Amino acid sequence: MQTKITRVLLALTLVSSLAACASSKFDYFEPNQPNQFSTETTISRDFNSVWDGYVASLSESFFVINNISKESRLINVSFSASPPQEYINCGRTKLTSSHPAKGTETFNYEVAADSNTWYGVDGTNHVIERKRDTTLNGRANIYIAPTENGVTLVRANARYVLDISVVENGLTLNHHTSINHSITFATKETGTSNDGVKCYSKGKLEQDLLELARKL
Fold first, then answer.
1. Where along the chain do its domains lie?
2. Which terminus in the chain has less CB density within 10 A, N or C?
């Protein structure tokens, strides 16, 4: 009799656990095609005054000058732009997480932005906490040159590196993973990761560089 009761309780427990399993669903939405933006401007001043004034303004900005050559008309700078989502668009992720005790929660976040979420492990009652940190760095070339019309041309192009760090920790089981990957792309190029995430420049950084010349 005791064995029969034990079997019944075990069966009820199994049915209950199967009926109340955790689950999660990730949906990725690619970014819209980027708006067209110009990467150059002209300044109605002579080349020497634009060059000297631009270098002076650049030295006071958050850009770090790496190389500068007046003869070749080129300046190369490094940058660290924050928050990344103000400068690039990598689409959005929608995560729907369900758990018998935690209920159902939907997370919507920009892929280029930091995020703190959790998800239920399909077919179990386990929960995993997921933390994403993003950083945006890169380099940019600024080309400054005189033109035949007596005005000075200023052109800016950048190469972006979006670093993504994902750390997962089990809240109801022994689980820990740490994954780092990067997406690299240039102005007006599409950056694509191994898992299909696409990134575009919003043009803000390029416009920031051009604005330094417009303000001279």
1. 21-214
2. N
